[in-house]
Amino acid sequence: MKLTVVGGGSTYTPELVDGFARLRDTLPITELVLVDPAADRLELVGGLARRIFARQGHPGTVTVTGDLAAGAAGADAVLLQLRVGGQAARQRDETWPLECGCVGQETTGAGGLAKALRTVPVVLDIAERVRRAAPDAWIIDFTNPVGIVTRALLGAGHRAVGLCNVAIGFQRKFAALLGTDPAEVHLDHVGLNHLTWERAVRLGGPDGPDVLPRLLAEHGGAIAADLRLPRPLLDRLGVVPSYYLRYFYAHDEVVAEQRTGPSRAEEVARMERELLAMYGDPALDEKPELLARRGGAFYSEAAVGLAAALLGGGGPRVQVVNTYNRGTLPFLPDDAVIETQAAVDGSGAVPLAVPALEPLYAGLVARVTAYEELALDAALRGGRDRVFRALLAHPLVGQYAYAETLTDLLLAHNREHLAWA
Amino acid sequence: MKLTVVGGGSTYTPELVDGFARLRDTLPITELVLVDPAADRLELVGGLARRIFARQGHPGTVTVTGDLAAGAAGADAVLLQLRVGGQAARQRDETWPLECGCVGQETTGAGGLAKALRTVPVVLDIAERVRRAAPDAWIIDFTNPVGIVTRALLGAGHRAVGLCNVAIGFQRKFAALLGTDPAEVHLDHVGLNHLTWERAVRLGGPDGPDVLPRLLAEHGGAIAADLRLPRPLLDRLGVVPSYYLRYFYAHDEVVAEQRTGPSRAEEVARMERELLAMYGDPALDEKPELLARRGGAFYSEAAVGLAAALLGGGGPRVQVVNTYNRGTLPFLPDDAVIETQAAVDGSGAVPLAVPALEPLYAGLVARVTAYEELALDAALRGGRDRVFRALLAHPLVGQYAYAETLTDLLLAHNREHLAWA
Amino acid sequence: MKLTVVGGGSTYTPELVDGFARLRDTLPITELVLVDPAADRLELVGGLARRIFARQGHPGTVTVTGDLAAGAAGADAVLLQLRVGGQAARQRDETWPLECGCVGQETTGAGGLAKALRTVPVVLDIAERVRRAAPDAWIIDFTNPVGIVTRALLGAGHRAVGLCNVAIGFQRKFAALLGTDPAEVHLDHVGLNHLTWERAVRLGGPDGPDVLPRLLAEHGGAIAADLRLPRPLLDRLGVVPSYYLRYFYAHDEVVAEQRTGPSRAEEVARMERELLAMYGDPALDEKPELLARRGGAFYSEAAVGLAAALLGGGGPRVQVVNTYNRGTLPFLPDDAVIETQAAVDGSGAVPLAVPALEPLYAGLVARVTAYEELALDAALRGGRDRVFRALLAHPLVGQYAYAETLTDLLLAHNREHLAWA
Amino acid sequence: MKLTVVGGGSTYTPELVDGFARLRDTLPITELVLVDPAADRLELVGGLARRIFARQGHPGTVTVTGDLAAGAAGADAVLLQLRVGGQAARQRDETWPLECGCVGQETTGAGGLAKALRTVPVVLDIAERVRRAAPDAWIIDFTNPVGIVTRALLGAGHRAVGLCNVAIGFQRKFAALLGTDPAEVHLDHVGLNHLTWERAVRLGGPDGPDVLPRLLAEHGGAIAADLRLPRPLLDRLGVVPSYYLRYFYAHDEVVAEQRTGPSRAEEVARMERELLAMYGDPALDEKPELLARRGGAFYSEAAVGLAAALLGGGGPRVQVVNTYNRGTLPFLPDDAVIETQAAVDGSGAVPLAVPALEPLYAGLVARVTAYEELALDAALRGGRDRVFRALLAHPLVGQYAYAETLTDLLLAHNREHLAWA
């Protein structure tokens, strides 16, 4: 089994490699290829990857290359984990929206649109080249904004599934709080990527008893603190929103923090410099502690599980992924991409039916889906007016004057990444 | 034909009576009853109504009463135009939301929710008493928020249609700008009450040529100025939003104005005092000029047209009303109430099919519909938590901390009108 | 020695009485009179006051009366501690300024101006009646805003000194942190009432070594947490600002809290209800624990010290009070009232010289002094324009549109307390 | 008479040269030297300057040079009109403060501080070199922020006077409205540079009748519109504030505009490109119309008048300049620089006495003077803490969290211009 990681020079990669090593019974990789244009980083990360495999006695090979076609040739699965423009572009995404009093964030709001515009054309180009090199390979997209990118991939006819670590993170955390095995924890997790709510936490299986009320009663404070959301919000709603809903439910508070604190991009850039320095140490043969603070926890478990389901040949496995709606949420178009529990096997992912989504969540999901449709249109076809419309449609912008100004700022700060601008 | 006006002591009533007099060929009223608990106002308004009928040679009678059952007995149609709590409650609706930086307005946002909570139980009680007194009467609701109130009436099984003067206002204004007869102007008007966009202006019939691009090119400046919206917004979108969309597209600008200007309620209260003083003048036998500035232009034309269609016995007439969605906007529940062109006859109103709503508008319509469902739930069943949820669902609130505070403020300012609070 | 407390029915009074009892060697009161128009409260508080004196073996008498002239007749000192409009007015002071995004507070900003306008005429009337009943009595003003009220009293020729517990609070807290006797701690405390900075903390006497740098190094975190100010602010400036400077240095943060939290007035009103219920218990003969959370800590120590200095006949004592500037801060008018260390004896209070105030503080002091002059002018002479000018002059308002709106709101919410409005 | 213009390549220069030509009887220049490091611009501007002199028959020579020492050698007066960092730096000054909700402006607020930090060291270096080349020359500073720059020059012992065109602009405008000769109009103009109020408009001489009340009654609307300030502000105060007070009195409104409109720097940069293209036209021999929209109207009249007074040998002339306070405003330090009417002759400028400044203005002047002192300290001595303190002292910042963030932004955006950063 050959697996290729595009953006393999990312500092995330050792997390992934560590998972491949630990979970080799689930996903028996024989050849792992890391593809990245940044040869220096690739060297550092590839070296550590080989040492991790070696230390854990994994028999597979690890190779690195800057040549996508070569790296993807004959692959069974290709993981996409790239960041167009790097931390510098992210730093800008987190900054200029503040000029209009809007949150600066790289996966939602005006900053999220900027990232989508930069990323979609690059990902589509990569996917096309992968298709030529490995026509049957599955594409697993971990590149943000996952919802929009996955919709772009599916719309272009690729065999693609979008993946995020929010759901697996909740599963592991809740299992720890409940003192049970994560495999026993089934989430009623639904919405769009980065716009989800855990509505039930079932034990033993998808029809098991719902322990979410007990979880909130006993650990609501800790859960809320972790999400940096007010505890009464969880208690009043009886659900656990994803961390990213903080940008909606506490928007102005976040803006106030962002105006006076260091940007997340700066923190991450600092961490990345430290991590790369560590990776270069020939004595290091496991993922360092610091990597946990980089984000992306359990990403490797999620990726291994998904790849195993897509490639493994056994029966379908249930997993939270991003895929076509197909009537699951009846108020959305069939070709909207949602994030939900799906049955995944060699033929792809099909969402499981979900109880009707309450209006409090459905209203927001519908509006953000409309934004995502306009964002994708702008990413595919370009043009100032399309950017303006996507911004006006976003619930965290919504006002004419801000949409106009943010359009100008987005274009000014991203011109080098937008072929049409 | 007997027609009863509940809230007949309103200063609006002479506008309505003037229309009944002018349009008596369309709607041959023989008995007009004005019902109102405020005997003083009723006396003043009733006197003027009689003088208007007399001056125009209308043969119908005008009676006034404080007794709803008597006034409604045997009526063919009952118009509801009331304001629970009067201008004082409205003045509060326009003020306390500002404490959270949210718009203060009586039909949308937190103030609109307050009005819905005050109004729905009163209207349902009146409708129930009307049903006993006149089981076959049509109820025409002009009471705001019209969308929520109409949904409440239909949900309780009443023969009801919701009416607003926004669409007829655009029809008349566009006809004037085009130099043509209003009857020739057909609007592609769609959305929710106070959340609509004119997407096409067709001449001659629903399939006539669309002159909206020409209208915007030639008169876009005047139309935008009238709506107090930036002209480039109209040009970029190619549609004409309703005036009420200013609370969304220019929210912060409106809040800045409201913080420093007199409230609309104060202006209206002043106007009402002036109007009532005029109405008492026995020499006055027509609606005064000042009434035009009170809002509600063409309300009587719209009401006469709708009543004539419901009661007239001819074929269906096409008119913009508020009624059940029934699949017209497929992304909304069938029992959502939308505002759109409908075929109206003695059996009620059925929406005409409309072209797919663009995501830029559909996203907002879906979200506000979700809010309206939660608002109606709060109005019918009460409880602090339901109020909180409706506020959190509203796109002009949306944040946890504001929803909490606004819930407290709403309850503090409306306790006397909320039986459960 | 006869001492009269105007506003003696306040829930604060037991704090004062407890101090009189404990410190009877410093201030040998023979007759204590509590004056208050609220007979019910006065009864409860007066009963507890007698029981506190009895328990501690204090030989003085405690009487209560609603008759100011009788209560003040022959008094040696009269303490003013009243609140015109009660907690209800305060609650409004804390609320309506938020409509303009301005802090809601009863001693500064627009709310502080409202309180000044309500209070100054009442205090001047009381002082005039005291002068007639006891021409030689000293008036000790603890009524907020102390700076403006003291300036009004001095301007009308009264023998008055203004008192606040901020300085004594810092002295006690610093002494505790340093593990030393409060009497050893001398503060370089300077500015205006509620706008002061501790610039040095000297041990042993006004020329002792300055331990503030050490105090900040060792306890800066605790001091900052107590003031709810960011620690780096203290470190960067090397001074300790009064708690009230939080309304300046963290204005927007306070507004955000006020918009979503309960008002201080509500908390205090709840506490007052509890306290009064306790005071009615005939078994209670000491000040209850809860009173400490009411604010006003060490008020009695400060009041006893000041009264003893004014009446005691010994040499002058150095104490922080509010009195005429007389060139102490050379950039302020001589008749501005400042808060600073003063030599106090039977002839009154004379400020000690202070090192030049740094521009960072002097600029703010000068601007607030200008506001206070305009506020006093508005309080004495009335008129919408004077209120507007005071608001425009206040650094927490400063903008035209807000000054206009806040003028209207101030008048609307305080009309019953403003004879001229 | 030799006159040297440093920054002579500015697009402003033709305005100045036109004035020199028209007013040659007042100021008989024989040699005009334009000094600028930008040879291209200097060539264009110098050519036009020669053509203007030629067309108007002015006998003086115009030379251009990049060598300051040569250009200044033997000069009688040196005008400073430079912009360190050009329009690009200004564009940044107008942008990054918005991230904290603070006005972006190059002469006040955080942007004004940035400009002061960039400019003061450069101007002091130039002045030192001028002193060596022409020890007796007068330095006329037109470089912003004029108040801080002039204080820096005077503090370093230079023969310097600061000049701004606000006062002469009002004089000309009022004269036009009154239909009288500007020379007849005497202003009671007082405050700091860009923080002034016209308190009286006297006809015929400094003791003539005050026609400001009449001017406001008859032309208040036009004056307010021109300043973009609300007319009632002028009526209530009975004074005319400088245009720059809009950044104080309508701060939030300006921020809202800046967030959604093009920056002034962008407009000016566009205009400069157009102007330079015009200047290159050998047929052009007068200042083009467009230059009037560049700002700086009547700058040449003011400069000619000032230079004539300093160099002319006649008795003193009264003119509005920036110079040492020397007790004129008794609440400011003697060495603060104020902007006021002064008697100017060959020995320099001495302020005329002014009536006491009302507290409403004095409070703001005192606070901004404190800021200017801290700003100058930061400009001369550098260091993050000094920048922080200046920002905390500024009335348009004032809050801790913003001061911290703005310090970081200021340093990040100006590092190349700050030797110590």
Summarize this entry quickly.
The structure is a homotetramer of 421-residue chains. Chain A has 421 residues and is an alpha/beta fold. Helix content of chain A is 48%, strand content 16%.
What does the largest sheet of chain A look like? 6 strands, parallel
Q: In DSSP terms, counting alpha (H) and pi (I) runs of 4 or more, how many helices of chain A?
A: 16
CATH class of the domain at 2-86 and 103-163 and 269-311 in chain A: Alpha Beta
Q: Largest interface, with Cβ-Cβ < 8 Å?
A: A-B, 40 and 40 residues
Content-based structural category of chain A: alpha/beta
Look at the structure and name the CATH superfamily of the domain at 2-86 and 103-163 and 269-311 in chain A. Answer: NAD(P)-binding Rossmann-like Domain
Distance between the termini of chain A: 42 Å
- Mean pLDDT over the full residue set of chain A: 94
CATH architecture grouping of the domain at 2-86 and 103-163 and 269-311 in chain A: 3-Layer(aba) Sandwich
How many runs of DSSP E, i.e. beta strands of chain A?
Answer: 12
| Strand line-up across the major sheet of chain A | 3-2-1-4-5-6
CA gyration radius of chain A, whole angstroms: 21 Å
**What is the CATH third-level topology name of the domain at 2-86 and 103-163 and 269-311 in chain A?**
Rossmann fold
Estimated helix fraction of chain A: 40-55%
Q: Poorly predicted ranges of chain A (pLDDT <50, ≥5 residues)? A: none
Write the H/E string of chain A, N to C.
EHEHEHEHHEHEHEEHHEHHHHEEEHHH
Domain Glycosyl hydrolase family 4 C-terminal (chains A, B, C, D): 190-397
Pfam family, one (chains A, B, C, D): Glyco_hydro_4C
Protein name (chains A, B, C, D): 6-phospho-beta-glucosidase
Keywords (chains A, B, C, D): Glycosidase, Hydrolase, Manganese, Metal-binding, NAD
